Amino acid sequence: MAFLKFNKSELVNLSYSLRREIILASKSGAYCNTSIVTCNTRRYHGLLAVPVAQFGGYRHLLLSSLDESLSLRGKRFNLGIHCYGDIYEPRGHKYIVDFDADPVPTITYKIGEMVFRKSLVLSPDSNQLLIKYELVASPAKVTLSLKPFLAFRRVHDLTHKNAAARSEGREIPGGMAFKLYDGFPDLNLQLSSKAEFKGGAYWYDNITYSDEMRRGFDCREDLLVPGAFELTLSPGSSVVFSATAGEPAVPAGLKRKYTALVEKIGPITSFHDQLVKAADSLIRVTDGKKQIVAGYSWLYTGLLRETLESLAGLTLYGKDDPKEFEEILDNLIADNTQRLFYRTTQVESPLYLAITLQQYIAYTGKAKRVWEKYGETLKKIIESYAPGRREEVAMHPNGLLWAQKDGIALTWMNAYINGRAVTERPGYQVEVNAIWYNCICFTLDLCGSFGDRKDPFIPKWSAVKELIEKNFQPTFWNEEAGYLADYVDGYGQNMDLRPNQLWAVSLDHIAVDDEIVSQVMRVVNAELVTRRGIRSLSPRDVKYRGVYEGSQTDRDLAYHNGCAFPGLLAQYCYASFMMMGSSFIKRAEWLTEGFYEDLSKHGVGTFSELYDGDPPHEAHGAISSAVATGALLNINWLIEKYKEERI
Description:
The chain is of the alpha+beta class. It is 32% helix and 28% strand. Helix 4 (271-281) crosses helix 17 (626-646) and helix 5 packs across helix 17. The relative contact order is 0.09.
């Protein structure tokens, strides 16, 4: 029985089906991303996008779509679907009678007495997409035609008709290879059964991506169809289509490989299984180097903050793999020396390393190993925030960090409109200083326990620790409002009610009194908590925007001014469990159940980057987010931990 459920009667309704996306991801960095009726609605959608070494390793879309048509007794039925302005043609979705996501995306079509099925699987460790076509039932033999739409462009861009594109391919075993432009790998299109390729290149103009059009982006592109493959299927027979980048496949082995890949996926029987599957898909291996993809299908790989926030969730709480945790972290540190030690536009990100390592210690108990392996890195990060070391941020005489660059957002709230930050937040930011204090305390504890007790680092930064303890609470606490200021600048406290204060009450080391923790959580509970994450701004604020829709400007205004972020739930749950212990278990379970209700929406089987702050809290942003997935795994781990303590 399928774990994820879909309303079969609604599949032919485009307002239902186009808002549901499948995402298949490979460790190689390749992906397949489209709607559940295989109509592309974003520029990022396509059947095979792969990283291209010649172009900096950025993902490029090679195969945009593949239109199938069936011919029976002189009648032709086209199963494809494309949008041209406000017209959909052909309208192959009208034949769809079923969609399943387990174990792989599978679409079933019914045309009279014909039943036809296609299933998609992406090789987990290479740039290969396999599609199995089955003629389940038919009154006679059927001619299957497959028409590939080629893009050969960066996933962020669009392509248009041009004379430079090479439409002619070359014959390879079981199919044809195409390379529209120099620098790209070959796109090898092959079939497990003998097929005839009928050439005749043609540009399909003004294919429209409805999601991009709705948001006011460039939304039209031209795609090249170099011809079509044709073959005959008998009732009960099947054929496997393969699209690979680089080396061609062996046609005779395509059916065996498809079967082996599907069997390897295994059944999904619980929400935790689905979380682990999503977590694994977000880990990429490039030239032997493991990294975390921040989100599919347009977020980047190896980002500092997103990796540090999600790393423990994806590798420890999801996969129980401390070795993979260290491997990814080591790669991250090696790739981010500038950001960690010299300059960054997200000033809290280097300091977040301490939180990530605290999670590692809580899971493995290996505090000494952390000090021996990462102690010098922690010390070097802290030293880099001393006066005169960084241009964007520096420690003041009161021990607090002041971060300011005119017009630049220096924290995670970094949306821009026309080059200006929407939430600049200059000065002392509450979460930056909370994470700063935690990092110093953590490093001092490790140094005192496992390092040289005569290390000059200890007295120097112990004095700073005492300064922060003296100044943090008076700087940020507002007695009248009953919560912590979001930031403090030259004009005083900014009292926008935001979730950033959660870091001040949820970390291992906090610089506020217990009574303040209780008051902060009371306000956060009343105004920021939703069943789809923590709002980025209180609904009582005039800047609040509860729906993430409209133009790019509209959405950028809403992004950190009302959207609810699943990733913030982890810090909220840490604080709540610290206050309430096991009595918070039921509440934590209730907060996570809402995400499981959404698994057949937005990104099928994945966990979205953000949600509307207003009910019914529709999903938006990247359909598969590393931070959201890691946070939910983190919360599940906390729930199980406190359940064990209660026994």
